[in-house]
Amino acid sequence: MGGDDNGDRALLSVRDAEQSAAADLPPDVRDFIAGGSGAEVTLAANRAALELVYLVPRVLNDVSDCTTTAQFLGSGVAMPVAIAPMAYQGMVHADGELGLARAARAAGIPYVAAMLSSCPLEEIAAVGGSTWLQLYWLRDRGLLRDLVRRAQEAGCRGLMLTVDVPKLGSRLRDMRNGFAVPAGAGAANLAAPGNGTAQASMAGAAVPGSSAVATHTAAAFDPSLSWPDIAWLRDQSDLPLVLKGILDPADAHRAADLDIAGLVVSNHGGRQLDGAVPSITALPEVCAAVAGRCEVILDSGIRDGTDVLRALALGASGVLLGRPALWGLARGGEAGASRLLGLLQDELTSAMMLAGCPDVTAAAALRTVSPVAATVDAVARGYSR
Ligand SMILES: Cc1cc2nc3c(=O)[nH]c(=O)nc-3n(C[C@H](O)[C@H](O)[C@H](O)COP(=O)(O)O)c2cc1C
Q: Is the minimum distance from the CB of 313 to ligand 1 under 6 angstroms?
């Protein structure tokens, strides 16, 4: 694990980190991070769809003082990016969640701690940045209530409930690898007295043909989650609530009526329903349905500063950075993650300047063109003549 000088010299873009991180990780851990569900159609579609969003640059707009600062997830941020909740960061590097949370704090962006983190949420919050806690809907409602109380007491800024995992998507790579979370990197927040079994079942021995993560999810997550439960969760604390994993505008419309702080347009990085719509494709309709009632955040496929700008131009207030943050962590722990976030900051600033955007307000007003939509329009116009 960890980068070397040669590797660092080669790291000129966020994407560069992927290959070098892959070389640093055990194959089964690399597959757990990189993989999607089923035939990985949505995993690939996230990238394809982002690349088909063409930005229309503005000119003569004085970008000499270009700033990426924004209001995002309840605080002032250096750029409208937060680290996505990602489980078990202790298996990526010994620095784990603390390393990535420190890098996020140094970069001036929020860190969303996964409920299934390798170290307790109190330690992550003590890093002192803007920490949010992600939750899954557990069968054990008492445990869920306890996590909310702990988040509030630890000074977390908000809660992010993931709503797209009634069961785990079929992660075939993990099943083929008989994947289990390495010992010592399991779900520390669930390892309280009385919950030793939950912890053990994830860190347990690999079973060929099945994923220990899927087995744990089936046992611990409650697929009965539905709309009235959101009110229950809101009533457990004063913390702002964000729902993660919304793609349909009707769901977005209904969610925005629930006095939530925001929602994340996400297909979980292609890890849940294979064949689900790319998040960037779903984003404009969701924004229209929400109509400014809460923040709309995007994740799934963000790989560089231009992608962040694409999301802003299509109506998002910011994005969650997923896998690339783990690539940074893999190659050099906190230092590697810091380097990666610095690159993303540079890329976003560069993209905004080249697009003639002095700030995020100008970025939000940028026009986009999709060659696919343009072709469909042109064909339709041809037919109507
Ligand atoms: C290794 C890994 C672990 C993840 N764990 C969680 C999790 O515990 N909770 C959650 O809501 N999302 C989880 N996600 C999904 C991310 O929050 C995010 O939606 C996704 O990574 C975005 O896609 P991208 O990585 O392609 O940008 C995980 C993703 C990865 C890659």
A: no
Residue 132: which of 107, 106, 105 has the closest Cα?
A: 105
Ligand 1, residue 112: give the atom nearest the CA: 17
Atom of ligand 1 nearest to the CA of 302: 27
Residue type at position 190: L
For ligand 1, mutation pick of 14, 241, 271 (most atoms within 8 Å of CB): 271
Mind telling me the catalytic residues? 268
CA–CA distance, 34 with 38 (Å, rounded to integer): 13
Query: Please, which pLDDT band fits residue 16 given cuts at 50, 70 and 90?
Result: very high
**pLDDT tens digits, 141-152:** 999 999 999 999
185 Cβ inside 6 Å of ligand 1? no
Q: Is the pLDDT of residue 6 over 90?
A: no
**Once rounded to an integer, what is the mean pLDDT over residues 328-332?**
95
The enclosing H or E element of 290 equals helix 279-290
Q: Which residues contact 36 (CB under 8 A, 6 or more apart)?
A: 42, 43, 44, 169, 171, 269, 270, 271, 274
Q: Determine the average pLDDT of the residues in 229-254.
A: 98
pLDDT tier, 208 (very low <50, low <70, confident <90, very high otherwise): confident
Mutate to test the pocket of ligand 1, among 30, 217, 268, 319 (most ligand atoms within 8 A of CB): 268
CA of 90 to the centre of ligand 1 (A): 15
324 vs 303: CA distance, rounded Å: 7
What pLDDT, in 10s, does the model give residues 268-302?
A: 999 999 999 999 999 999 999 999 999 999 999 99
Q: Is the pLDDT of residue 383 over 90?
A: no
Mutation probe of ligand 1 site: the residue of 86, 174, 246 with most atoms within 8 A of C-beta: 86
What integer pLDDT is reported at residue 382 of this predicted model?
75
Mean pLDDT in residue range 310-320: 98
Query: Do 57 and 370 touch, CB atoms closer than 8 A?
Result: no
The closest residue, in CA terms, to atom 1 on ligand 1 is: 33
The total of other beta-carbon atoms located within 10 Å of residue 60's CB is 6
The whole-angstrom separation of Cα 123 and Cα 182 is 20
Q: What pLDDT is stored for residue 8 in this prediction?
A: 55
53 lines ligand 1 (CB under 6 A): no
